[in-house]
Structures are given as structure tokens and as C-alpha cells.
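Private note to self, pasted from the team thread so I don't lose it. C-alpha cells:
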């Protein structure tokens, strides 16, 4: 207790004791003097006792209760807080992610994503600083962690995880208000399937770090520089450590550090490239005795403390915001994949329905084939998958616009030629004309459907190249040999075999009848055929 407060306490106790003695004597005299006033006497005595009680209460509050309250206020005031703007942005992102996750149909995936969103939210509430040790397996990462734990807490704590997921320890650093979690990750650039899986885990842990300790055992290789640059591009702050400094002469070590600082310029600050010795080699003395030198990691401790004191709050806030944004992007990718699969099922359904209808009732005009292949109902259903509620009239407008593009780009003619060549060995005789029309309709429907998927994926926008570029790209993607072979096999099952069965039935019913081939396909102006189709 400070001396002025101690003197005040002694004076106060003496004063209270004197007042109590005076009060007893005064009350005794007052009771005799007020004996003739039965009501006034008790009232005055009560007021005097109440006044004395207030004085004692004020004394206790000032010397005992007030200091504790001030201490609690100071504790609350000194507790670090994440940047409110970035924290609010992270919270808004997490809310948006949770709304997106409701659209994910896969129960396991949805639960896993929800768990990750809650984990980010908990990290925001706890505010622990996560330092991740990253590098090759031979660079001495684990030795560095052991040296840090031994130097800073005196004893290596129990790991929070397992070797497979990276071992994490808690530690305190002088001058840093927040608790620090330090994680030793699996090594990168290891051979084999298991090594590749461990590297994926190490990279994921690195992307979740507030601060990275990138450990090297020599000069920087390109295979190490690439992940360092990638992590810096997403906003990760790194300290580059040249470990095993005891293996080099002072001149060689300075040369390595100078070359390394020049190599990482623009990626890592030159002040964040330092040398350490996490686990020095034993030294044999002339006497034959072997001694184990102490680790030299003080340059790292000083640099890490300086960064976390000055930038810890911003690093934490930036990382939480980054994690929430990455989770949102992953949710959008999952939803986009889910919607794409649903839309492709719609396209496949309509392409074979259209193929069957046209194969049964052949069309005499090739332009009309394009308009018939693009079904307005298909457009409406694809739009619904992407949350775009359009009516049939709008669907018909889009269908006609794309049909015009199919013809003007020569896609219809190209599709017929492509499929005719592929079908020559599979279909013969009178069935050829009917089959080629039906299968061409299915193929064109597929190109149209795929084009509309791209249109709705991009918020009903064809992009800078317009509808022409989208259609051309889909045509090129769907004319590859491996796809055409697979498509023709499906077409034989869904179109040609039913036609063969129909022809056989007709032959059985009229054995003497002659079956005529359909007239050759003719080319007519597109505008006339569209008007007729309307």
C-alpha cells in the first residue's frame, strides 16, 4: 500500500476510535439532559448513530471497495480488442455464410462448414494469436518449437493435437496481452502420397495463421519460395528464419542472409529475415569432454515480440476477416457446383425428350431444328435453379435469341456434319435421316442448355464477349472426340434403338409395304422459320 494511503488509513482509524469514545460520552450526557423529552431524545440519538454509520461506510468504501472496482476497470480497459470495423465485417460475413449453408443439400458438408464457421466465431471471441511454424521436414521446425517452449515457459507443455494434425502449444510472451498458440506443422516437399497429404495439411494450417515462422536450413529454394510468396499474397505476415547458424562461419552466414534478403524483397521485410540456432551441435573439448551449447533463439523472440506488440491486433483481425471470406468463397463454390449438377440434369432430360420427339416426327427445315432444340421451359427451369424466377414469355425470348445465334454461327450445320460422320458406322438405311435429326436436336439442346447455365451463373449476364462467345465456347467443349463417342453411345440407346424397334413393328404389321426415306433436309431463312414456329 502506498505511504500516503497508509497514513490516511491510520489517521482515519484513530479518528473513528476517538469519535466512538466521544459518542459514548456524549450519548450518556445527552440522555440525562433529554430525560424530560421522551420523543426528542431517541430521534437525536438515532440521527447521530446513522451519521456515524455513514462515515464508517464511506471509509470502508474508499479504502476497500473502490480500489477493487478501479482494478477491475483497469483490467477491462487494458484487455485488447479486435478492430471493431474488421470484427463487424467478419461477423457479417459469417452471417452471410450461414445463410448460404442452408442451400447446401449434402448434410455432412453442411455440418462441417457450420462447425468451421463456429470455430472462426470462437477465435474472434477468444482472440488468441496463432503462430505457425512452417518449412521442410529437415529444417528443424520441431527443434525450434522445443527451444521456444523451453526458453519461454521453462517446460514443454502437453500438445493440444496429434502429430498428424500438427502439435499446438500455449505460451505467454512478455509485453503481449493475448495468449499465443504456436503450432508445429508437418514438413513440406516430402516424397510419397503420405508426404503430399501432410503438405496439404501444413499449407492449410499456414493459411489460418496470424504470424508465420518460415524455417530454412540453407539458402531459399524455388520450391520453398513459391509457397512463401503465395502466403504473402493472401496477406500472411512471415518471419524467415535461417536455422542451424552454428554450422556456418560468421562471414558465410552474413552472405547467406544478404542473398536471402535480396531474394525475398517485396515478399518479406528485410528486418524479418534473421538467423537462429534452435538445436546446436554438441562440441567436443580438447579434454575429450562433450558439451551441449544452449540454443540461440533470442533474435527470434525479440522480433516476434516486437511484431505481436505492434501489429498483433491487426494481424488477428485481418486473419479472422480472411478466414470468414475464404469460408464464404468455399460455400459459394459448393453451392455453384450443386446448382450446376441440378441444371445439367435438366439439360440432359430436355435433350433426350427433344431428340425423341423430333426423331418420331422429322422436321423438313434445318433452321427450325435449332429453334425446336432450345426449349423455353428448359430455360425457365434452369433459371429457377439459380434463383431467377422468369416467366415463359421471357424464357421464349431467350430461347429464340440463342437459336438465332446457333444458326448464324453455323453451329447447327456443324453439329449435323459432326454427328453424321460419327453415326455412319452405327446407323444405316432409311433410319439415318430420322436419327440424325433427333440426335442433332439433342446435341443442340445440350449446347443451348450449357450456354444458359453460364448465363444464369453470372447473374443473367453473357459476359464481355456476349452470347456469341459463350455459344462458341460450349460448342468447342462439346465437340471433343472423347465426348462425341460417349454422346453417340447414349444416343444409340435412347434414340436409335427405339427407332429400330418402331421400324421392326411396322415391318411386321405390313410385310409387303415399302418404306420410303424422308426427304433431304433443306435450308431456309431463319426469320421465316422462327415466325412459323411462333
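Design output:
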Amino acid at each position: 500500500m502506498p505511504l500516503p494511503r497508509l497514513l490516511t488509513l491510520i489517521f482515519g482509524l484513530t479518528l473513528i476510535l476517538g469519535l466512538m469514545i466521544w459518542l459514548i460520552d456524549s450519548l450518556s450526557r445527552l440522555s440525562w439532559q433529554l430525560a424530560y423529552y421522551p420523543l426528542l431524545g431517541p430521534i437525536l440519538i438515532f440521527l447521530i448513530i446513522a451519521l456515524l454509520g455513514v462515515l464508517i461506510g464511506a471509509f470502508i468504501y474508499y479504502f476497500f471497495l473502490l480500489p477493487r472496482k478501479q482494478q477491475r476497470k483497469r483490467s477491462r480497459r487494458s484487455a485488447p480488442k479486435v478492430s471493431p470495423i474488421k470484427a463487424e465485417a467478419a461477423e457479417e460475413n459469417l452471417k452471410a455464410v450461414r445463410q448460404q449453408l442452408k442451400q447446401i443439400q449434402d448434410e455432412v458438408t453442411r455440418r462441417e462448414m457450420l462447425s468451421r464457421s463456429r470455430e472462426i466465431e470462437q477465435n474472434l471471441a477468444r482472440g488468441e494469436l496463432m503462430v505457425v511454424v512452417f518449412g521442410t521436414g529437415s529444417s528443424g521446425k520441431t527443434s525450434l518449437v522445443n527451444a521456444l517452449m523451453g526458453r519461454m515457459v521453462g517446460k514443454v507443455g502437453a500438445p493440444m493435437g496429434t502429430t498428424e494434425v500438427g502439435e499446438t502449444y500455449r505460451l505467454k510472451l512478455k509485453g503481449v496481452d493475448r495468449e499465443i498458440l504456436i503450432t508445429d506443422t508437418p514438413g513440406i516437399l516430402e516424397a510419397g502420397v503420405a508426404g503430399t497429404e501432410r503438405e496439404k495439411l501444413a499449407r492449410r494450417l499456414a493459411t489460418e495463421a496470424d504470424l508465420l515462422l518460415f524455417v530454412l536450413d540453407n539458402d531459399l529454394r524455388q520450391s520453398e519460395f513459391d509457397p512463401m510468396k503465395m502466403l504473402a499474397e493472401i496477406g500472411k505476415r512471415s518471419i524467415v528464419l535461417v536455422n542451424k547458424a552454428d554450422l556456418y562461419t560468421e562471414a558465410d552466414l552474413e552472405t547467406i542472409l544478404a542473398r536471402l534478403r535480396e531474394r525475398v524483397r517485396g515478399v518479406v521485410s528485410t528486418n524479418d529475415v534473421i538467423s537462429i540456432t534452435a538445436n546446436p551441435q554438441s562440441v567436443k573439448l580438447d579434454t575429450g569432454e562433450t558439451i551441449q551449447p544452449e540454443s540461440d533463439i533470442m533474435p527470434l523472440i525479440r522480433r516476434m515480440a516486437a511484431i505481436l506488440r505492434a501489429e498483433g491486433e491487426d494481424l488477428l483481425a485481418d486473419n479472422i476477416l480472411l478466414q470468414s471470406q475464404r469460408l464464404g468463397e468455399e460455400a459459394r463454390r459448393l453451392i455453384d457446383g450443386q446448382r450446376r449438377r441440378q441444371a445439367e440434369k435438366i439439360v440432359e432430360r430436355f435433350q433426350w425428350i427433344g431428340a425423341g420427339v423430333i426423331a418420331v416426327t422429322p422436321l423438313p427445315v434445318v433452321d427450325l431444328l435449332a429453334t425446336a432444340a432450345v426449349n423455353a421451359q428448359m430455360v425457365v427451369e434452369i433459371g429457377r435453379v439459380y434463383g431467377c424466377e422468369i416467366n415463359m414469355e421471357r424464357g421464349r425470348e431467350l430461347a429464340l435469341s440463342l437459336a438465332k445465334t446457333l444458326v448464324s454461327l453455323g453451329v447447327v450445320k456443324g453439329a449435323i456434319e459432326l454427328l453424321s460422320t460419327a453415326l455412319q458406322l452405327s446407323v444405316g438405311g432409311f433410319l439415318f435421316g430420322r436419327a440424325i435429326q433427333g440426335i442433332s436436336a439433342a446435341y443442340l439442346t445440350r449446347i443451348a442448355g450449357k450456354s444458359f447455365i453460364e448465363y444464369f451463373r453470372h447473374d443473367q449476364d453473357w459476359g464481355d464477349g456476349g452470347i456469341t462467345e459463350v455459344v462458341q465456347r460450349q460448342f468447342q467443349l462439346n465437340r471433343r472426340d472423347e465426348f462425341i463417342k460417349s454422346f453417340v453411345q447414349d444416343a444409340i440407346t435412347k434414340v436409335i434403338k427405339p427407332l429400330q424397334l418402331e421400324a421392326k413393328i411396322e415391318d411386321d404389321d405390313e410385310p409387303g409395304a415399302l418404306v420410303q426415306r424422308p426427304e433431304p433436309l433443306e435450308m431456309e431463312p431463319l426469320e421465316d422459320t422462327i415466325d412459323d414456329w411462333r
